[in-house]
Amino acid sequence: MAAHTPLPPNLRRGLVAFSGSLFITNKTQDSGTAHLYQPAHEVLASLPLQVMLYFNVYYFPVWCLAEGMMLQLKYHLLPWHYQFLLVTAFLILSLAEGSRLYLGYLGNLQEKVPELAGFLLLSFLIQLPLLLFLLTDSQVIHLPLEMPMHSLFLAFLLAEIVAAFLALKTMTKQLAAQFYLQHFQEGRRGQPGGTGGRAAEVQ
């Protein structure tokens, strides 16, 4: 049974269009791409991405607990604006990570392009900048445990971005090939009728 997707229909169509414009170079309907693919279904889910997501699901609560404790320890040592920035970054990272992992699982296992594209955008546009801010800003007051915790989180994130990019590229090309194949088969089914009609007119 397919899992219910949390993405609205308009957002799903937008992510499909974004993925298609990013990965498909030949969009003409009369291209010969459909002739190169067989109708048999090929498994497109990425095993490396799924392995990383699996371990990330278990690592995320550990990171969340450790970062919350360290933030509490150094909170009173920070300027007021950094107190606000760090609490906000921690909340956004924690909330977005749950949605990101869910979209990654759903998009990869069920081979859904919009969900996997949403996972990639959340990783690249939200999680990566916030994590780099926590790692590189000198005013954050890094505690000894923070650097290895953030570095491991960053390693997971970068590896997942690369794996999701490759998986999304493969899925998008396969989706386009299926569309071209279906269009080609429909055209061939309609062709004999048209030829017969023209022959009847000549007689």
What does this structure look like?
22% of the residues are buried. The chain has helices at residues 9-23, 47-74, 80-109, 113-136, 146-202. Residues 25-40 and 194-203 have low confidence and may be disordered. With 203 residues, it is mainly α.
Outline:
Helices cover 76% and strands 0% of the residues. The protein is mainly alpha-helical.
Using only C-alpha atoms, the radius of gyration works out to: 24 Å
**Overall 3D form:** elongated
- Termini distance? 55 Å
**Approximate strand percentage:** under 5%
Q: Tally the helices: what do you get? A: 5
Helix-residue proportion: over 70%
Question: What structural category arises from helix and sheet content?
Answer: mainly alpha
> Mean of the pLDDT scores?
80
* Uncertain runs: 25-40, 194-203
The major sheet is characterized as:
none
Task: Give the tags.
203 residues, mainly alpha, 5 helices, disordered C terminus
List the helices and strands and how they pair.
Elements: H1 9-23, H2 47-74, H3 80-109, H4 113-136, H5 146-202
